[in-house]
């Protein structure tokens, strides 16, 4: 297992060199560490958890014209090159396919614990101080407005609407980030999310005070 994990780390670092800062190696590393932390509290396959955490954003559809098949293809080819078992490969690909927020409506009702662990870790990195930083970084990357008082958040968007959305960065808090606390799967994920969620509420409160020059 050790060599496979080490090789995967090197592969991901090389593949994501120069990636947008919210979806780069450091994002992967944080999700990997959070996954291991959560996995300690769950009865799960540690290898599948770590491989999935490391490979989950190897080809994020946002940067590949919305194509969700590239990550699956790249991950399979890499894992096959490492002689990973077909069972391990299938489990990892299932997690990569079903982990994202926008795909939550398409995911099976009963999720394997390994997916729950990695999904919580990925969602935790989208909230709190890191989440705020990543959100504004990506908003800047897309040249979106930070905020516009007359543009309302779009709640209950379909998957296609979500993928095409170019709303303000502040609206993204209401369209996704503030929803994540209630979507945590594990007790450890819920525990960590509480503090990060409250940080975002405090940030928004301060943002509006400064915006309105109160």
From TrEMBL:
User: Domain HD, which positions?
Assistant: 24-127
**Highest taxon of the lineage:** Bacteria
Checking SUPFAM superfamilies in the record gives:
HD-domain/PDEase-like
Checking Pfam families in the record gives: HD
**Which Gene3D superfamilies has this protein been placed in?**
1.20.58.1910, HD-domain/PDEase-like
The UniProt entry, under PANTHER family, shows: HD_PDEASE DOMAIN-CONTAINING PROTEIN, SUPERFAMILY HYDROLASE, PUTATIVE (AFU_ORTHOLOGUE AFUA_1G03035)-RELATED
**Can you name this protein?**
HD domain-containing protein
Q: What is the lineage of its organism?
A: Bacteria, Pseudomonadati, Bacteroidota, Flavobacteriia, Flavobacteriales
